[in-house]
Specification:
Length: 406
Amino acid sequence: MADYIITSLQSWDIEIGSTIKNTAWEISQTNRVLYVNPPIDIATYIRMRYRHRTTTPTTDRRLAVLRKETPALRQISPNLWVLDCPFVIHSVGQLSNFLFDYLNRKNCLKIARWITVHAVKLGFENEIHLIDTDLFRSLHLKEYLHPSISIYYRRDYVIGFPYWRKQGPRCEEQLVRQSDIVLTNSTYFADQLRPWNRQTYAINTGVNLELYDASITFERPQDLSPISAPIIGYTGAIIESRLDSQLLYEAAVRLSRCQFVLVGPEDEHFQKHPLHTLPNVLFLGRKEVAELPSYIQHFDICINPQKVNPITDGNYPLKIDEYLAMGKPVVATRTHTMEDVFASHTHLASSIEEWIPAIENALAECNDNELAAKRIAFAHTHSWKCSVEQIYQAIRSYSSSGMSAR
């Protein structure tokens, strides 16, 4: 049994499915895990506290911890703890290099001291530190925490987003160079980072096979009851940076006999998009993760109409595994990862002219039980156990190499 400390951009209390949470949970089946929630910076605190924004379970807990109304450390399972930070840190993302370096180092030291207090309290020793794309707050933690192994995990191309463009690229390069092991969720990302660190491995993301179980008959959700077939469905965040709204619009117009059902929270771009004016497009809003299999089961086919950009091209789309685990025909935008991992079990398209026949072909497979079984079998090779085993293998490979210099 080993001890793991995980620092991440994502809070444990995030309201949507989370790769890093599932990874932490799987690691905790045979090891001890301390998952550190990201502390709030000053700018975020002001927005949360004084601008009367709608609260969420995540923000409510953060504020409660800051007010000392709830303990900072909680035990989730016998081997898994979540640690909140009862303090705010400096906002640094848009500062000049000099100010960023000075204040971010102070942030990291403050976080490291807080982690150390609780790691000692829990009796952690020789910890393995897994950094989940936390470019700023984890930048100096190797120096301050002295883990036995430091792992940087790029699951997303965050430096493609505006907030991260100023300081993100140089921080990520520094993290990659100083880490003992680098993990990515695609060969595309691995090829980008390997020149900075030879100990770079691409691993598959997992899928919750107990939740996405095609052998279970799920009750049809009430808000799907009045919707007639064929239903073309999507589950997940509905945001401009990832989804091609124009492609969706054109597909819905051309396939007017089909119902396009999108399940998930929308950003402002989609809330105002003309898609809402089409009678065969329905936005059903955010659902609990546990509800998603019932929607997927009652879709005829599933889609992932991604934009192709640096954020999406190498990203591992977890929803594809979820769709396939339910046996559904899938149509998705052709990206590097879709070609590399999923091409044999999905229909890929690059333009609206390719999307329409791909959807028609997928609809023709709706009742093909043999194809459904093959999709399910493929998804089962991407369990969280398999995903985490790849992390262990990377650790074993690094350790057996004598922890040689890169």
